[in-house]
Structure formats: structure tokens, C-alpha cells
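Residues determine shape. We examine one folded chain.
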Amino acid sequence: MSYTSDEIMTVTAARALRDSMTCFVGIGLPSEAANLARATHAPNLVLIYESGTIGAKPATLPLSIGDGILAQTADSVVSVPEIFNYWLQPGRIDVGFLGAAQLDKFGNINTTLIGNDYAHPRVRLPGAGGAPEIAAACREVIVIIRQSRRTFVERVDFVTSVGFGDGPGARQRLGLPGAGPERVITDLGELQPDPRTCELVLTGIYPGVSVADIRASTGWDLRVSAELSEITPPSELELRALRGLQASVPVPIPAS
């Protein structure tokens, strides 16, 4: 079956999730990835949405974090302060998803502004929301972002959510308990931080994409892993499950 760039991004992100993890989910591709994982290889994945739903099991993708289908299918519904104060900040969330307007080589995220003048930016972005706390406290973070020189920059214009700061030791100096961005999944491939330098390194590439393509879409001198691998394309089962979630009526998924 043919697939789109969004579909291979979503499938790649879903494969990174393990059964019985607690997963802090946002709307968009993160929600698609988490729900796809639960529908395929991780049926006991616990989905936690910022609106206060714990263990949501939507049959189709929610339209927003306030979609009633989340509360209707959740194991529990709590207040937003409880989600942050009890679940997120103490480190009870295994993995959190984040997006970005800009991302730099140390995995720092900007969703605040474009430009060097905070008071008079070229573009004012939506802002932080709960992202700084997700970046700080989740045991690991997965970033999903489309890759271009506009988004992959040498240094972000504003650090909304800390990745690895200015390099090794930065998270520890800031007292951030989480491990930081363990994976960055794009429409071209996958990057992971070098354990020594904390710099993002290309570790996986999609079929039909070249290293030159990815370097041309990166605003810094991108390092490539010596063990660079080609990412397996989405299977028919994964695509059927994903498209079933996107339908207004759930599509039955045949047993494998």
C-alpha cells in the first residue's frame, strides 16, 4: 500500500511506544501515533491527555483535548492541576510527545516567537502551553516535526522547552529530572542524541530519501551515525489501523 509522509512519521513514532507505558499525548500526529500503537502492538498503552483524561481509549481520533470521546472512554477524569502536579511534574509519565516551530542541534524547542526581539518578533507563535513541563519531567520525550532549514536551525530564536540546553550537563544544572528528547521523528527520517555530546545525530532514514536530502534540510552540519539504517515502511496492517482511526466510523482491523 502507498503511504504519505505524515503516515510514515506517525507509524515510526507509534513503533517507539512500548506496551503498558504511560504516554502524555497531544492532538495531531502525536495523538495518531499513540492511538495507532494502542490499536496494534501496545494495547495496554495508557493515554493521558492534558485535559485530565487518564486511560482514554477512543475508537477514532479526538478532534481536540476537550473532545467528549476522551472522557467517555477514560479510566479516570481528573483536574488539569492534578495532571500536572501529580502525574507530570513528579516524573510519573514515561513518554511525552512534543512538536516545534524551531528545533536546534541540542533538541531545544521554540514555540514562542521568530526573531531576536521578544517585544517585536517577526512572528508571534502560539506559545508554551504544557510543553516546558513535558520536556522537563517526562522520562523521555519524542519530538515530531517536519524537517527544513526553517525548522532545523543552528540555535533556536527562543528556548520555550529545554532539550539539552547548550550541551552535556545542562539538564542537570537546571535540575530537570527527565531524560530529554530521546527521538526526533521527521518527514525524512529519525534523529537521536549522541550520548557523549548530546547533539542530534541522524540514525534512521526513510526509503527513497538520501542523506544529502536530509543535510540540505538541516541548518547545521548534521552528523550521521555509522550505524545509519533504513526505516521499515508502514505495513498494510499499520496503514489500515491508522486510516481506521481517521475515519468517522471505526474500520475493523483483521487479525494478523
Notes: The helical segments are 5-15, 29-39, 68-73, 80-88, 131-137, 170-174, 211-216, 236-246.
